Every structure is written in structure tokens, then in C-alpha cells.
Amino acid sequence: MDARNGGRETPYNSEGGSAENYRQEYVMTSEDPGLTGLNNSVLVWLRTLGTATVSATLIVTFVLQVARVDGTSMAPTLADHDRLVVNKLIYQVWEPHRGDIVMLYYPVDPNKSFVKRLIAEEGDIVRITDGHVFVNEQELAEPYVSSENRSYDNWGPEPVPQGYFFVLGDHRNNSSDSRIWGFVPKKYVVAKIQVRWWPLATAKFF
């Protein structure tokens, strides 16, 4: 009997602690698995978020990118404010080809990006006569250039230097392109226009 407890006995557990303390310790311990489970869930979520962020960054940097057309230099093929998916990986594997619609860095200011059509490759001889384009003395069939968008200028003939391309916009009388600022370094051609996904009514693979 314990006088300090008003004559009541305070039971002890087998390890020397009181039953009250034991119950308190047990309750506190019983919360640990829940806290651990919550922490694990947060860690899993953060890990998943981090993986998704890294994956998205890698895709945007090296594979695909969403872009928007600003202007009408590629009309009627592409319209102002069309939304595109550009393939940045393809030219890491294969060379660009004549007729590809490409995204390139503007040679005069590489901080800007343009969309143009690749017309001639290194070693080709290009001339334009009355708006008709000739590559190696063969006139190009250009169904993508409408009659109202055709220019009637003359240019060349000039050979495309090694390591360069010659590009034009499809809207020939409203396009700043190789006729004005010259040939494009191959390293500046960074992606192929793969898909127009918006507007949905005119969605198309290129």
C-alpha cells in the first residue's frame, strides 16, 4: 500500500513501470506505424513526381516539343496560331531531306525560331526564275505553294555550301527566308514538324 496514493495500490507491470505509464507508452507506440505509412506515402508521391518531372524534361529537351505558329509565312500549309508537335530526336538519327518542314534557329538571331520548308541540301545548285524554283536545273513541283502566294522574283543560281541548307516559306510573297538572309547552318535545323494537332478540324501528320 502506498500512502502517497491515498491508500490505493498502484499496480506495476512486469518490467517495473506502472500500468498507467505502460498504457500511455503503448498508445504512443501504436501511432508509429500510421506515421510511418504516411511518411512512406509522401516519399512515394515525391519520388513519382520527381521521376515524371525528369522524364518530361528529357522528352522536351531531346525528343518532342509543342510549338505554336506565329505568322503566315508557311500558309496555306500552316496557319497563324496552329499548334504543332515537333520531333527533335529525328535529326539526331537521320539527315533532314528536301521537302521537310523544319524548325530552325534564325541565322541572324539564333534566339529566335522559325518554321520553313527545306528546299535544297549542301552541294545542290539553286535558282529561282520568275518565282519557279529549280534545284540542280530540275524545277520543283510545289503543290503547297498556291497561285496567290507565289512570288515572281529571281534568285541565283547559287550552290549550297557544305554544312548548310536552303529554306523557303510556302507563302513566297510573305516570307523571310534564305532568299533574304542566306543559307542556314545544318546545326541550326533542330527539329522536324511532325504533327499539327490544333485546330482539331485540320489536324495532320507531316
The gist of it:
The protein has 206 residues and is of the alpha+beta class. The chain has helices at residues 19-30, 32-62, 90-93, 178-181; strands at residues 64-68, 83-87, 101-105, 113-120, 125-129, 132-135, 138-139, 155-159, 164-168, 184-185, 189-198, 204-205.
Q: What is the CATH superfamily classification of the largest domain?
A: Umud Fragment, subunit A
Largest sheet properties: 8 strands, antiparallel
Order of H and E elements: HHEEHEEEEEEEHEEE
Please give the radius of gyration in angstroms.
34 Å
The CATH class of the largest domain turns out to be Mainly Beta
Query: What structural category do the secondary elements indicate?
Result: alpha+beta
N-end to C-end Cα span: 93 Å
Written overview of the protein:
The longest helix has 31 residues, at 32-62. It contains four helices and twelve strands, in the order ααββαβββββββαβββ. The protein is α+β, with helices and mostly antiparallel strands. β6 and β7 (138-139) form a beta hairpin. The model is unreliable at 1-31 and 52-62 (pLDDT under 50). The chain has helices spanning 19-30, 32-62, 90-93, 178-181, and strands at residues 64-68, 83-87, 101-105, 113-120, 125-129, 132-135, 138-139, 155-159, 164-168, 184-185, 189-198, 204-205.
